[in-house]
Amino acid sequence: MASNHHEFLILGANFAGVGTAHYLLRHTIPALLKLDATRTYHVTLVSPSTHFFWKIGAPRTLASPDLIPFSKAFGPIADGFKEYSSDQYTIETAAAVGLNPEQRTVSVELPSKENKTLHYATLIIATGTSSPSAVWTLNGSHENTINAMKELHKTLPSAKTILIAGGGPAGTETAGEIGSLYPKAQTTILSGTSRLLPRLSKATSNDVQARLKKLGVEVVNNLRVTSVKKLDSGATELAFDDGTTRTVDVYIDSTGGKPNTSFLPKDWLNEKGQVINDDKSLRLTIPGSEGIYAIGDVGSYSHGGFMDVKDGVAPLCSSIAIDVAKTIDPSKAGAFKQKNFKWIPDTQFVPTGPKGGVGQLFGWRVPSLMVWALKSRTFMVEKLPGAMKGQDYINA
User: Fold this and answer.
1) Distance from CA of residue 278 to its chain's centroid?
2) 185-206 burial string, b = 16+ CB within 10 Å, else e?
3) Burial class (CB within 10 angstroms; exposed 0-12, middle 13-18, buried 19+) of 275
4) What tens digit of pLDDT does each residue of 25-68 get?
5) Could you tell me the pTM of the whole model?
6) Of residues 331, 392, 366, the one with CA closest to residue 80
7) Which of 122, 261, 346, 388 has the fewest CB atoms nearer than 10 Å to its CB?
8) pLDDT (tens digit, 9 = 90+) per residue, 99-131?
């Protein structure tokens, strides 16, 4: 590659990858060009899915096609980049399968199953997670998620017994949606721990359990699924860690995903499988990882959730700007100010159906009406077009 060309390679194209691409194209690259107009810059965005997924609304989208139709939950990634010249960026439909940091190359697998080598000067890992069920994350093509949801749309209306495993926000919200929409079904949620929403206060956990009980949802604590067997009848046989078994009409696994990091060196990962990166600058600090960064659930800095992405984009891109400026002229790194990521603790908004829910902001409990206004009413699905266009990053 020519020395005056700089390639930004972003692996992953949902909230983290798309947001980073917009910030680079809109702010970072124009600022770098002011330092040296002879350089050229290009962004390549890699994703196995051609579509952006509003996964925030997944609990409602999976419950019924009438609540959030697929046309509002998914959108072509390319539609979000029409404001830029086509020579500024490339969208590559592929999945990362290997990394050579010495050569600064990434091997990707195309839909044809053929491999292709992509070069980078700066690499941003934004590959997210893969969940046990495709309803939660883009496990490959967005069609996988749509098909998983279609199966639930077919089985939920007639289901007499429904079991949801996982007591975090996704599972709790799903229990609220199903309890509200299908009150005649016997719906059970397993928290997997001593209570629902364990990251929030006990008072909030008690509140959400009481709200679900009013919807007819049974909450079971300290019980986990150990095996799952799909029966010929369409039902699912479950075994639990207390030695008991149960057969249900519909089983929804919301126990969380695993980071998409199988293509990375094992010594770059923490015990959860996340990429180890600095919790303020989002740089990788492992020897041999120069010029590489991580953002979103895949990074060790992240506690999970959209806000860790949204609040991480500007710090990440400030790190990139400083590091790239040093390659132009070390004295020019001061043209950019380092922004640091700051985690917002004890903050979640968790709807329990379309009429409200529970939430905390900086540890303070918020009223159900606020949860309704900010999330429960629409799951913010109207923000999908803006997210695809990077509207959260209009200003630097």
Assistant:
1) 19
2) bebbbbbbbebbbebbeeebbe
3) buried
4) 999 999 999 999 999 999 999 999 999 999 999 999 999 999 99
5) 0.96
6) 392
7) 346
8) 999 999 999 999 999 999 999 999 999 999 999
**Inter-residue contact 177 to 65 (CB < 8 Å):** no
- End-to-end, the C-alpha distance of the chain in Å comes to 29
**Strand order across the beta sheet in which 95-100 lies:** 95-100, 105-109, 115-119
DSSP state of 155: H
Helical axes 202-214 vs 169-181, angle rounded to 10°: 20
What is the number of residues in the chain? Answer: 396
For the beta carbon of residue 335, count every other beta carbon within 10 angstroms.
15
Q: Report the C-alpha gap between 15 and 388 in whole angstroms.
A: 8
Cβ distance 376 to 357 under 8 Å? Answer: yes
Helix (H) or strand (E) holding 250: strand 250-253
Give Cβ neighbours of residue 40 (< 8 Å, ≥ 6 apart). Answer: 4, 5, 6
Distance CA 163, CA 176 (A): 12
Residue 375 buriedness (CB in 10 A; 0-12 / 13-18 / 19+)? buried
